[in-house]
Structure formats: C-alpha cells, structure tokens
Amino acid sequence: MMWAVKLGKLLGHPTHSAAGWVVSKLFVFGNRLLEENAVQLCGIQPGDTVLELGHGPGVGLESAARLLTEPAGHLIGVDYSQYMHQMASERMKELVAGGKVTLHHCDVAAMPLADNSVDKVFHCNCYYFWPDLRKSTAEIHRVMKPGGVMVTTLRLLILAKLASKNVMPRENWHPEAYMSALRESGFTDVRMEDKKQKQSSFQAIYATASK
Length: 211
Ligand SMILES: C[S@@+](CC[C@H](N)C(=O)[O-])C[C@H]1O[C@@H](n2cnc3c(N)ncnc32)[C@H](O)[C@@H]1O
Known about the structure:
- This protein is of the alpha/beta class.
- It has one domain: Rossmann fold (3-Layer(aba) Sandwich), CATH 3.40.50.150.
- It is 41% helix and 25% strand.
- A seven-stranded mixed β-sheet has the order 3-2-1-4-5-7-6.
- Helix 4 links the parallel strand 1 and strand 2.
- The radius of gyration is 16 Å and the shape is globular.
- The relative contact order is 0.15.
- The mean pLDDT is 95.
C-alpha cells in the first residue's frame, strides 16, 4: 500500500516534481466542475472579498475573479504547497500585479488575514488533508464576516473509493467530521446537498459564519 500513501501525500501537498506536475494536470481537467460549481454556489457579489482555500493550479480562482467586477471586489487565495502557489501566481499574474488578487503561501490553519474581513469562502478537495479540522475551521471563522457564506464541493463516491484504497491520510474526509468541526467553530446552517450537472453528480456543503 506504499503507493496509496505516496499518492495521498502528493494530492494533499503537491511538490515540484514530475509526479507533482501530473497531479496538477489531473486537478485542472478533473476538478473544473467542482471548482466552478463551488464558485457559483457561494453567491459572489461584484464587490465582495472572496477567499479560496487550497486553490491548487488556480482554475477556481480564475472563475471567481470574473465575478468581482466592482473596484472593491477582491480575491484571496491560500495554498501551502510552494509549487501550487507558484503555478496559480503564474496563471493569475496580471490580476495579482493589478492588486485584484492576492495569493498567500500559507496554511489554512494560520492565515495572514484580518478578523471579519471575508464575505465568501469556497474550496474543493482540500479539507480531507487538514490534520486538525477544528483548528482550521476556527481560523476560517475568525477571518469571515458575520453572515458570510462558505461552500465546499466534493464527490463522495470517489472519496469513499480513494479512502478504501488507503489514499486518504486519515478519517477527516468524512463530511460528518468536517460538518461537526464547522458547527463547533460557530458556523450555522451547516448542511450537505446532492447536486447534479450534466452526467456528473457531486455534493455541496454549506456553512454560514455566525453573527
Ligand atoms: C487535492 S488538491 C486540490 C486542488 C484544487 N482545489 C482542485 O480541486 O483541483 C489540494 C490542495 O490543497 C492544498 N492544501 C491542503 N491542505 C492545506 C492546508 N492545510 N493549507 C493550505 N493548503 C492546503 C494542497 O497544497 C493542494 O494544492
């Protein structure tokens, strides 16, 4: 099962290597539907401050940036992989240079962001890899404005399959584990919905930062 553990490590923290490059291509082509739906479902307004966690190559960043048409609209991305940070910085370089987008190379559990500063948060395929769900959800709650909405999209069937092959590093991929950490950190209206688009089915987990 060594290969499974290695694959799990690579998916959770892609490194600058041939294998890291291959998984980055898988993210771009395999996860576009999840990324674009997470952006749509969190209800971005043109002047919002929006945050993506674990953005990887930056497909979701690109589609969120298109919605932030007012001058006040600002997009922030965080990823603790140096390689993914570089790849997304390259993809978004004009908007980063113009100040519309800010990317931080950091852990979700310790973000260099002010309290109550973010309106909408989205993420895909990321929470499964957080070693301490409570620590990360408390940090996300700290940076969100009261009433702000967070959405994560996932494919439960694929996750269960990967977990059965020991690719998932621990049990945190279970939506129930993530949803209880959210509630314990002060999120309300925490719920999961089944979604379908074209031939693909996926899930969306919603949470609202408490007032
Ligand atoms: C499986 S990839 C998914 C990338 C992209 N969201 C997608 O769906 O294609 C997980 C990403 O989350 C990042 N990540 C995982 N845990 C993180 C953490 N604690 N803090 C910051 N980034 C994290 C990884 O570096 C990686 O880029």
